[in-house]
Amino acid sequence: MLIDGELSQTNDGSETQFEYDLFVIGAGSGGVRAARFSANSGAKVGICELPYHPISSEVTGGVGGTCVLRGCVPKKILVYGAAFRGEIEDARNYGWELNEKVDFNWKKLLQKKTDEINRLNGIYKRLLSNAGVKLFEGEGKIVGPHEVEITQLDGTKLCYSAKHILIATGSRAQRPRIPGQELGITSDEALSLEELPKHAVVLGGGYIAVEFASIWRGLGATVDLLFRRELPLRGFDDEMRAVVARNLEGRGINLHPRTNIKELIKTEGGVKVITDHGEELVADVVLFATGRIPNSKRLNLEAVGVELDGTGAVKVDEYSQTNIPSIWAVGDVTNRMNLTPVALMEGTFFANTVFGGKPSKTDYSNIPYAVFCIPPLSVVGHSEEQAIEQANGDILVFTSSFNAMKNTISGRQEKSVMKLVVDAETDKVLGASMCGPDAPEIMQGIAVALKCGATKAQFDSTVGIHPSAAEEFVTMRSVTRRVAAGNKPKTNL
C-alpha cells in the first residue's frame, strides 16, 4: 500500500516533484472530507467539480454533491413539509380549531429548499477555502497515474501532476429502457418541479421511491407506487417491509406490487402509463426511482488502467486504493455502501491512511440507516433474514407493535413497530429495526449500543425514558419467536 512519505523515484533515483500532493475529482461529501482532512495534515490539495445545476448530468454537478444539492438535504426538507399535512389532521383532536380548507404553497416551499441548498453550496466552498484547498470548476479526468486534466467552462484545459489522485465523483440516477422513457423524470427533476403534481406515478421499490411517494401524497397528490417485488424495500427486514407497505397504504398511496411499466405515451391529459399487466394510468408526473449508476464514464479510467466492475464502479481494496497505487476512490463511485455518512468515513480514513500516518480500514458493520417515508423506517445491524442466514445457532426475535401515545388522542390508526434480533447462545443483539415517528433519531443511539457489542441483558437492564416510544427497546421481555438455525424466518404480519 502506497502512503505518503514513500516518494516516487525516477529511474536515476531522484525524487519526482508533483504540483499537488493530492488532487480530488469530485467535490461531494466524500471528496470534500478527504480534501479538507488531507490539507489539515499538511498536504497540498487541489479539487475540481462540475458547475452547479439543480439537475445533474455528465457535465453539471456542483460543490456539495448529490446529498447536499439534489439528495438527502432537499429531500428531507420536502419530507418535513409533507409531514405537516398529517400533523394538521391530528391537531384537530388535540383541540386545535382549524379551517376545513388548509392551503399549501408549493412554490414557497420550493424556494425555501433552493435557498437552503444555495447556502450549503457556499458553505462547502468556504470549507475548502478555509482548509487551503484549491478549487477548480470544470470537468476532471485522469490522463496518467499522476496526472489530471481539467476542462474549464470556457473549454480551455489545465493539466496538473499529483502524487495521489482521489476519485469521488459519486453516482447518478438512471432511467429504464422503455418506450417513452424521456417522458419520465428522475429524483433530480422531482426536487425542482415548477408545479406540484396532482397525480404522480412512481416506479421503484427502494428508498427514493417510497420517500417521494410519501412526499407527494403528504402534499395532497394522488400517488400510485409500482414495484417489481411483493413488498417495497428489497434487502430490508421482511417484517418491517410489510409494516412500511401497510403504512403507505394507510396514508392513501396506491400500491401496485409485482408491476412494471411497459410504455409511456404523451396525451392531452398527461402521461399515459401502460403497465406490464395492461393497466393504464394517466399522471402529470412519472418518477423513475430505478437505481443509480457510478459516475465513472468520462474519467478516462480504462485508458489509465484503473479496473472497473460490470456496473462501472471503481474497484478498490479495503483502504480505498485502486489497482493503480497512486489512484484511490471513495463514495458511491465505488458502489460499496452508498450512503453519505459512509462516504464521509471513507474520505476520513483515506486522509488518515495516506497523509495522517494512520492506515485505516473502513468498518462497514453496524452502520445505521433510515428511509424517510412517512412515518420513517430506520435499522442497524442484521435483518432477521440476514441473522438466520449467517447464524450458527438459534435466533431470538423480540417485537413490539403499539399505537404511539400521540395516536391514542389523534385517532390515527397507525402502529409503531420495533424489533430486536438476538443470538440465542451469546445474547448479543445482532440487529434492530423501527418503523414509526422519530425512528432515525432513536436508532442513532441504538447503533452505538450495537457497535459496542451490547447484549439483550444490557438492553433489559437499561432504564427507559417514560413516556416515550424509545423505551420500548429496553422493555421487550418476551420472545416473539425462536428460529432454529437453518430455518426460514416466519413473520407474524
Question: In a nutshell, what does this entry contain?
Answer:
It contains 13 helices and 21 strands.
Give short descriptive properties of this protein.
493 residues; alpha/beta; six-stranded antiparallel β-sheet; five-stranded mixed β-barrel; 13 helices; 24% strand; glutathione-disulfide reductase (NADPH) activity; Glutathione reductase; disulfide bond
**Radius of gyration over all CA atoms, rounded:** 25 Å
Q: Portion of residues in helices?
A: 25-40%
Which shape, going by the Cα principal axes? globular
Poorly predicted runs are 5-14
Number of helices: 13
Strands of the largest sheet, in order across it? 16-17-20-19-18-21
Summarize the main sheet. Answer: 6 strands, antiparallel
| Strand residues, percent | 15-25%
Mean pLDDT: 94
What is the number of strand segments?
Answer: 21
Distance between the termini: 50 Å
Structural class: alpha/beta
Written account of the structure:
By secondary structure, the chain is an alpha/beta fold. It has 13 helices and 21 strands. The chain has a six-stranded antiparallel sheet with strand order 16-17-20-19-18-21, with helices on both faces. Strands 1-2-3-4-5 form a five-stranded mixed β-barrel. Strands 9-8-7-13 form a four-stranded parallel sheet, covered by helices on one side.
